[in-house]
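G., the chain you wanted modeled:
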Amino acid sequence: MNETNALIQQITEGIQDKKGKDIVIANLTQIEGSICKYFIICQGNSPSQVTAIAESVREFARKGAGTKPLTVDGLRNAEWVAMDYADVLVHIFLPETRHFYDLEHLWADAQLTRIPDLD
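Predicted structure as tokens:
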């Protein structure tokens, strides 16, 4: 679990490095049949910021946790980028797309941790 915690820390730092906002970590470890152990959800204000956040997450995870995503999807339109790190799925949204899909409430049984925005 320490490797997963280190990865979560690096992903969070990568998001914050590019001023990603409203970071939520959903702990899915107690939910039977979940597709991973954690969701990390955040948002950027524009497609270019969403792309920059995704690239920052990739770099922080590679350098700080020694891992690469298994797959990355959504960079083409950058409204919702999903990054699969096996035990951790990262979701980077535009605000309106995040509101529409409302992943935090989809996993209402999960323990949600909100990370304060950096100014």
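Helices lie at 2-17, 47-65, 95-101, 103-106.

Shout if anything looks off.
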